[in-house]
Amino acid sequence: MGDAGPLSHPPSLPLRVAIIGGGPAGLGAAIALSALPSTSVQVQLYEAAKELREIGAGIRIGYNCWRVLELLGAAADIKGHHKTGIYHRNGLTGEIVGRTGPGPVGLEVRYQARRVRRTRLQSSLMGRVPRGVIQLNKRLKGMEDLGDEGVRLRFEDGTETIADLVVGGDGIRSVVRDHIFPEHSIRFTGTIIWRVLVPVSAIKHIPELTVSTSWWHGPAGHVYHSFVDDPEEVEEGERMIEIAARNVVDPETVKGKTFSWGVPATKERVESHFVDYDPRIRELLSKPEEGQWKEFAAFAGPRLEKLTGWNKIVLLGDASHPLSGAFGSGAAFALEDGWILARAIEYTRLRSEPLAKALDIFDHIRSPYYLRMYEYLDGMKQKVVDAKKADPTATFETSLKARMEAFGGEEALPWIYRNDIERVWEGFLQEQNVPNGSR
Ligand SMILES: Cc1cc2nc3c(=O)[nH]c(=O)nc-3n(C[C@H](O)[C@H](O)[C@H](O)COP(=O)(O)OP(=O)(O)OC[C@H]3O[C@@H](n4cnc5c(N)ncnc54)[C@H](O)[C@@H]3O)c2cc1C
Q1: Cα angle vertex 132, ends 127, 134, to 5°?
Q2: pLDDT of 333-375, one tens digit each?
Q3: Residues 61 and 88 placed together within one structural domain of the fold
Q4: Which residues line ligand 1 (CB under 6 A)?
Q5: Which of 36, 74, 86, 372 has its CA 20 to 30 A from that of 410?
Q6: Do 30 and 109 belong to one domain?
Q7: Shared-domain flag, residues 267 and 151
Q8: Whose alpha carbon is nearest atom 52 of ligand 1?
């Protein structure tokens, strides 16, 4: 860790915290920070939307996410589809090319992976944020560094506030990030994802679709489907299945503006990208009603060298690591960020240390973690380039087989999927020679 820099906020006064964004990052941070004594920290969360409505369909919750949800007291209410076997198929022929699951041996049931409706995750988190903390319809427009006085925040509705600490949980297109790192930019990756929930009853007649979670891989994308409900929580007739269809093009070939995030897509638009797929998949894609599909254009950007700025701003979740959903665990990363931030603030306030020191601790723990992810993804990209160079005539079938053989699944990345954020914090305390059991 570097020098914490000047004292930006006297530890004797309550820290006024402004969280921007009410996604997993902002909600998780609001829960964890609100649990600190109010004489120490005062929290407000500002969300641009008029109501907190989770867009998207389902979300995967695995061990790393369950652990942090437990620490936030938000795990018990969340149920969903308990994932067992996962099939990988050639999307064009339906041939099974790989199978994973039923999941790691010895992992307690409560920590095993589930696919859940996003709304369930969100309402569980919202239920744990104290009343009066969330302010809706507050879109951040601008920020000004007031030196020792904090940060002035300006909202689109013309109102202003001053905070000692600004927590940027405002997602991949973060306004907070734009202010502290104006040279950083994100760009369209070439991937468009369409997502929807459909009643299971609508697809029950399609052979083999209701027996497992499956990936149907095609030459330029894939179609994924999975249940999202636990039979104990949802009546049979009400159960839903999630469909996520993805098409990838070379971003250089895309002309015009490709910017969509949770906007409706027509059935025709979605289906047009999967006309070569197995008839079962074409049938599946035809089932959502017009207006139900939502489209998301994936954006990504380079790694930030630091996740903090101005000695009083910190970035969490997608704002801090614009990886565009890589690893399918972004909600866990966002929640882990918020929990670690609360620990770092608690640690420094117990020791009458400045806010800048807390931000330094946060960066010391989380930056190397995100660096490791970026390096891993760079390595994977390089492998694809090398494989193409080695065999430029490889067909879709042979390259899919090679991909499946190289696919280690989640077991290959325990530092992500088996991360226990409480252990990470304990590791930090050990580094600092803090006696066991102390904070
Ligand atoms: C297709 C896809 C599939 C995914 N699947 C999974 C999965 O299975 N499991 C998983 O863990 N993760 C998954 N992710 C990733 C996960 O959705 C994100 O990583 C996670 O939502 C990030 O949370 P966040 O709070 O940082 O950002 P967001 O969820 O984007 O929330 C940001 C919030 O900030 C608000 N906001 C934005 N700008 C402003 C402003 N100026 N002022 C005030 N408020 C503002 C927004 O309205 C929003 O509520 C997936 C992502 C994608 C795209």
Answers
A1: 70
A2: 999 999 999 999 999 999 999 999 999 999 999 999 999 999 9
A3: yes
A4: 20-26, 46-49, 59-60, 139-140, 169-171, 175, 193, 296, 317-319, 325, 328-332, 334
A5: 74
A6: no
A7: no
A8: 325
